[in-house]
Amino acid sequence: MLNRTTAGAAAVVLAGVLAPAAHADDGRSGGICKGATMFVKVCAADGGSAPGTAGGGTAATPAGTSGGSSKPSCTYTRLDPQPPPDNMFWKGHDRTEKGAVYGVNCPNSQGARTVWLPDGQAPAAAPVVDPEAVARRAAASMKLTGPAVASPRAAGKYVVGMPMWMWADPSPTTFGPISASATAGSVTVTATAKVSQTVWAMGDGTTVTCHGPGTPYTPQQGKNMSPDCGHRYQRAASDKPDGRYRGTATATWSITWTAPALGDAGEFTETRATAWTAWVGEVQVLNTH
Fold first, then answer.
1. How many whole angstroms separate alpha carbon 73 and alpha carbon 19?
2. 254 neighbors 272 (Cβ within 8 angstroms)
3. Residue 43: pLDDT above 80?
4. Secondary structure percentages of the chain, helix, strand, coil, to 5
5. How far is 255 from 179, CA to CA, in rounded Å?
6. d(Cα 49, Cα 46) in Å, to the nearest integer?
7. How far apart are alpha carbons 208 and 165 in whole angstroms?
8. Is 7 helix (H, G, I), strand (E, B) or coil?
9. DSSP H helix total and E strand total for the chain
10. List of residues 6+ apart from 122 with CB closer than 8 A
11. With CB atoms 3.0 to 4.6 Å apart as the test, which of 7, 254, 264, 269 could cross-link to 259 if both were Cys?
12. What's the whole-number mean pLDDT along residues 148-177?
């Protein structure tokens, strides 16, 4: 990965960006997507006509335009010095060929990347695919959701001071792992998503962070606390609407991606939440005297 701060000649701005647009098949309508792995076809559209060669470090703009395009643009910088001969940034080329390695920095991307261009070819004439943008479209096709809350149950009755076990039913789209691949131009990006943690807002001002789906309760557990995802309410919800605490379970999805053709990889996170309620009351003691 390149550092966002690059040295060398002045940058040339790409006015015509290759913008991927994804369409996903959810596997329920006779498509090719089966199980947890989903594939996305991403189409690339040129954002404008190829600009001419810019000299002296000035920005290049397409002929017949004012340069005020609202489309995002990538910035190209010729690396100086060039990478060592065995560096993967050469993309299979070598120093005997007339060309150079350029750093490419695209808006809304978490990292810079590189491209090899032959001498005499203006950087703006070679649109580059931003692999993170493609990875985000692949992630969108996964249809990630919030936790499938199994406990607390909406119909359940819970008691102050007694252990409450929280858990969610894991599935590929509610907990992961789930993968999707997307292609733009000659670049294929594979993204894999998995929930790294779930934060339970209990409705009483406290939160509980769990690093798994939680352990289902069984009668054999008696009054034991959950080993990985539990809570004790200290007061009843009698002052709450319907005598219920209203909470949320918010999952953090960690999404890693790789783009082998570019020798690039990265990670980003997304969150999904599910609302739930729990009736919590006091133990009623019957006086027999």
1. 10
2. no
3. no
4. 10, 40, 50
5. 9
6. 7
7. 11
8. coil
9. 1, 16
10. 12, 50, 51, 52, 53, 54, 60
11. 264
12. 96
| Whether 171 contacts 194, CB under 8 Å | no
Q: Over 70: is that where the pLDDT of 216 sits?
A: yes
The strand ranges marked E within the chain are 12-13, 18-24, 37-46, 75-78, 99-105, 113-118, 149-151, 157-159, 163-165, 167-168, 178-184, 187-201, 207-210, 230-232, 244-259, 264-281
pLDDT tens for 254-265 read 999 998 887 788
pTM of the model: 0.63
- DSSP code for 197: E
Can you list the alpha helix ranges (DSSP code H) found in the chain?
131-141
* Single-letter residue type at 196: S
In terms of pLDDT, which residue wins out, 190 or 89? 190
Task: Return the structure tokens found at 228.
Answer: 């990985």
Closest CA to 15 of 56, 67, 83: 67
Rg of the chain, C-alpha, whole Å? 27
Note the Cα 210 to chain centre separation in Å.
20
Higher pLDDT, 22 or 192: 192
Q: pLDDT class for 52, splitting at 50, 70, 90? A: very low
Q: Are 188 and 138 in contact (CB under 8 A)?
A: no
Our CA dihedral for 217, 276, 143, 32, rounded to 10 degrees, sits at: 50
183 vs 39: CA distance, rounded Å? 9
Strands 207-210 and 99-105: unpaired
Per the structure block, which two tokens stand in for 68?
């005020």
What span, in angstroms and rounded, lies between the C-alpha atoms of 147 and 174?
A: 5
DSSP state of 134: H
| Cis peptide bond N-terminal to 152, omega within 30 | yes
**The amino acid at 276:** W
Rank 79-88, 91-100, 127-136 by mean pLDDT and report only the highest. Answer: 79-88
Per-residue pLDDT at 125: 55
